[in-house]
Amino acid sequence: SIPHVDLRNRLFTTFSFIVMVSGVATFALFLAERGHQESDIANLWDAFYFTVSQLSTLGSDMNNAVTTTGQIIVLLINVFAITVVSTLAGIFGAYFYHRTDQRHRAHQAAASDGD
What we know:
This protein is an all-alpha fold. It has helices at about 1-35, 45-55, 70-115.
């Protein structure tokens, strides 16, 4: 149905954007933190792990970024994560609202046909 296609397209777009931002943030965080003695980010895997941890839970078992650039990147990752959660809630809320409204209208139409 049209609502399902719309939901699927919005979710695909959102998840594609998440993957893209994760890749860019991973690489940027790696460049900002590599080689710093106090940083837990020594390679791309560490940067990826940290980025995905921040996106999914706003936390990690790794120490926070130690460079100013790294800290700004982490702040942007956190803001993005909160925005994505809000967007996903809105996408699902709009879908379920539309489905409920559609069922309500169908019920009203059936009731008025019966009169």
